Amino acid sequence: MKETQLLKGVLEGCVLSIIADHEVYGYELVQILKSYGFTTIVAGTVYPLLQKLEKQKCIKSKTLPSRDGLDRKYFFITKEGLLSLQEFENQWKGLVNKVNQIVRSERTSIDEQRNKSC
Predict the structure, then answer these.
(1) Within its chain, how far is the Cα of 4 from the centroid?
(2) Phi first, then psi: what are they for 79, rounded to 5°?
(3) What is the dihedral of CA 95, 97, 100, 102, to 10 degrees?
(4) pTM for this entry
(5) Alpha-carbon distance 51 to 45, whole Å?
(6) Do residues 23 and 74 make contact, with C-beta atoms less than 8 angstroms apart?
(7) How many CB atoms lie under 10 A from the CB of residue 82?
(8) Sheet strand arrangement including 59-66
(9) Measured between alpha carbons, how far is 48 from 7 in angstroms, rounded to an integer?
(10) HEC profile for the chain?
(11) Share of the chain above pLDDT 90, in %
């Protein structure tokens, strides 16, 4: 399975987490995600997600002047966004625990089978 398929389900939570930390504009958000190692993320993935989150009232945007010339659209988290982020974090922790249990269990089972055959 490709990382991009796995990421689709968690990108929204990652974006909310970054925006909860501080307001960002779209290009900056892409660069932050890349700095965390999500090198396959492109603006064409992030901008529609930002629009979706804004439509769901999880984030709000405000156009502000930029030192670099053109105005930029900055995104801020809302109360609804914070609640969604908290829900994501709870679901993520539960999912990670379940997956880790399976992976550990399978690894132990494989190791036991190897030891029996030796």
Answers:
(1) 11
(2) -60, -40
(3) -80
(4) 0.82
(5) 11
(6) yes
(7) 13
(8) 24-25, 69-77, 59-66
(9) 15
(10) CCHHHHHHCCHHHHHHHHHHHCCEEHHHHHHHHHHCCCCCCCHHHHHHHHHHHHHCCCEEEEEEEECCEEEEEEEEECHHHHHHHHHHHHHHHHHHHHHHHHHHHHHHHHHHHHHHHC
(11) 68
Q: Which residue has the tokens 């089972």?
A: 109
The dihedral sign for the CA sequence 13, 11, 62, 72: positive
For 14-72, how does the pLDDT look when each residue is reduced to its tens digit (9 = 90+)?
999 999 999 999 999 999 999 999 998 999 999 999 999 999 999 999 999 988 889 99
Half-sphere exposure of 23 (CA within 13 A, CB side): 12
